[in-house]
């Protein structure tokens, strides 16, 4: 892969929105409210890079990932994958792209069929997307991938309940890789695992990226984890991207108050170190009725009256660094792990 090719986006998302119509209940009650889970997201994911997507629960991170994969039908916007806009494609037209884009699920327990052996779980995508493959070819591919993710080919005959959570997630990663995809969406892949196992899975994903040249969207609520794996990080709040930057730039010089608040919540292993926490006011607002102007203004310690009136655009403030905030006069605290 040439440097010029590597610098091109494999995935380009422009103005992506996903709204859910709550409608009325069985008895005809309700107001037909609209949940704006994703509202005007634009970002590029370069070939071979890992883009981290972080934010609180309910910010719309997982919906972005699933909509990019067209597991959700977008309400508006475009999803250009390797030059083709996936947004308007019908189900049959999407089939050739399915093998090129895969998902690693958050829960390694419920995402594996307990009635199927590991070998059957990993090889099922081949049965769907490569129906002409022989049983020997499928078995060889399963053995190859189990070795790649740190398991043994003999594990193919076992069932999911015989494995730990970390081993199950390795099986899920093997299943996602079986069709040799170009793009992976890892949806909170380590949040259900112990901290020591999280590090192992993150290292595995980095090794897989290095060996296979994969492009990845890594979704998490944990900035420390994302900082260990991502080349760039997009910070999301209430359906919108509020900051986007190279990982080191974001950790050293956050430009959005929400990013600063996330950094202030990072745990520090040394009990002797004291710091001021930025306690955000209240809960994240409902995506049914988001605030006017800046969606973060109701919890922002730096909010001005204009923040209720002006919808901030994501604008460039440094090399590869963009923020959606009208305050240009703020000096925000960096991450403790910078």
Walk me through the structure:
By secondary structure, this protein is an alpha/beta fold. The two termini are 31 Å apart. A hairpin with a 2-residue loop joins strand 9 and strand 10 (240-246). It is built from ten helices and twelve strands. The protein has an eight-stranded mixed beta sheet, sandwiched between helices. A four-stranded antiparallel beta sheet has the order 2-1-4-5. The protein is globular and about 65 Å long. It has a single domain (3-100, 181-323), classed as P-loop containing nucleotide triphosphate hydrolases (Rossmann fold, 3-Layer(aba) Sandwich).
List the helices and strands and how they pair.
Blueprint: H1 3-6, E1 9-21, E2 34-46, E3 50-54, H2 61-68, E4 76-81, E5 84-85, H3 91-98, E6 101-104, H4 118-129, H5 135-148, H6 165-177, E7 183-187, H7 195-212, E8 215-220, H8 223-229, E9 232-237, E10 240-246, H9 247-252, H10 257-264, E11 315-318, E12 321-323
Parallel strand pairs: 3-8, 3-9, 6-7, 7-8
Antiparallel strand pairs: 1-2, 1-4, 4-5, 9-10, 10-12, 11-12
Helix pairs in contact: 4-5, 4-6, 5-6, 6-7
Low-confidence stretches: 1-5
| Strand/helix succession | HEEEHEEHEHHHEHEHEEHHEE
Strand order of the largest sheet: 6-7-8-3-9-10-12-11
Radius of gyration: 21 Å
Quick summary of this structure?
The protein is an alpha/beta fold.
Keywords:
338 residues, alpha/beta, Rossmann fold, eight-stranded mixed sheet, four-stranded antiparallel sheet, 10 helices, globular, disordered N terminus
């Amino acid at each position: 892969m040439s440097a010029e090719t590597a610098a091109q986006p494999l995935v380009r998302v422009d103005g992506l929105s996903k709204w859910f119509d709550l409608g009325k209940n069985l008895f005809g009650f309700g107001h037909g409210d609209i949940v704006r889970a994703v509202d005007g997201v634009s970002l590029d994911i370069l070939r071979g890079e890992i883009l981290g997507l972080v934010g609180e629960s309910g910010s719309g991170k997982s919906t972005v990932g699933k909509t990019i994969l067209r597991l959700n039908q977008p309400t508006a916007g475009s999803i250009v994958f390797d030059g083709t806009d996936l947004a308007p494609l019908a189900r049959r037209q999407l089939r050739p792209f399915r093998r090129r884009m895969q998902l690693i699920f958050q829960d390694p327990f419920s995402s594996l069929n307990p009635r199927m052996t590991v070998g059957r779980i990993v090889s099922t995508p081949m049965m769907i997307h490569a129906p002409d493959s022989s049983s020997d070819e499928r078995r060889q591919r399963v053995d190859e991938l189990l070795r790649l993710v740190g398991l043994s080919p003999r594990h193919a005959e076992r069932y999911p309940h015989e494995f730990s959570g970390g081993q199950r997630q390795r099986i899920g990663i093997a299943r996602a890789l079986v069709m040799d995809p170009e793009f992976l969406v890892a949806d909170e892949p380590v949040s259900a695992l112990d901290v020591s196992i999280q590090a192992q899975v993150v290292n595995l994903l980095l090794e897989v990226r290095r060996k296979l040249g994969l492009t990845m969207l890594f979704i998490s609520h944990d900035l420390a984890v994302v900082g260990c794996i991502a080349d760039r990080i997009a910070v999301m709040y209430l359906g919108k991207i509020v900051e986007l930057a190279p990982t080191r730039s974001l950790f050293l010089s956050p430009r959005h108050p929400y990013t600063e608040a996330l950094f202030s919540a990072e745990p520090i292993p040394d009990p002797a170190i004291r710091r001021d926490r930025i306690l955000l006011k209240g809960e994240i607002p409902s995506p049914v009725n988001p605030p006017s102007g800046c969606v973060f203004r109701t919890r922002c310690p730096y909010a001005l009256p204009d923040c209720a009136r002006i919808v901030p655009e994501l604008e460039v403030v440094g090399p590869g660094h963009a923020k959606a905030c009208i305050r240009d006069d703020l000096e925000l605290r960096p991450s403790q792990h910078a």
